[in-house]
Amino acid sequence: MIPTLTRSYAVTAALAGFRIAAFAAPATDRTATVATANDDPFIGVTASLGATAGEMVDIYVAGFAPVQLGGPVSAGDPLTSDAKGNAVLATPAAGTTVRIIGFADEAGVSGDIVDALLSPGVLHEPA
């Protein structure tokens, strides 16, 4: 088994398994919600069980973790979130910055659950 770093967070709304999670209110607390944009403050990827509002959810924050895809990716591609918390290829437009949760460890298409190396960061495309 490849070790991962996992933390538990309270969730503000239902959060499915294998989704990218973000801080719900980063200025005031440590609650989690589903990531809905490529510039959300990502936490990591939810474990398989997910959680409903008010429950605790385990979130992988470092190491290898399974994540559901929202589009096609190749191994090594940088991953960000779509509007449903699925991992998609991170492609910043000119003059923008996008957050990434990590890198695909294998290729896949929308709906697949693939391993990703969690390595949060940002990608910036100069204007």
Can you tell me about this structure?
With 127 residues, this protein is mostly beta strands. 0% of the residues lie in helices and 47% in strands. The chain contains no helices and nine strands. Strands 1, 2, 3, 4, 5, 6, 7, 8 and 9 form a nine-stranded antiparallel sheet that branches. A hairpin with an 8-residue loop joins strand 2 (20-23) and strand 3. The termini are far apart. The mean pLDDT is 95.
Tally of alpha and pi helices: 0
Shape by Cα distribution: globular
Number of strands: 9
Mean pLDDT comes to: 95
- The N- to C-terminal Cα distance equals 43 Å
Q: Which series of helices and strands comes N to C?
A: EEEEEEEEE
Helical content stands at under 10%
Biggest beta sheet attributes = 9 strands, antiparallel
Stretches where pLDDT falls below 50 for ≥5 residues?
Answer: none
Based on the structure, what is the oligomeric state of the protein chains? single chain
Radius of gyration: 14 Å
Counting helices, strands and paired strands, the structural category is mainly beta
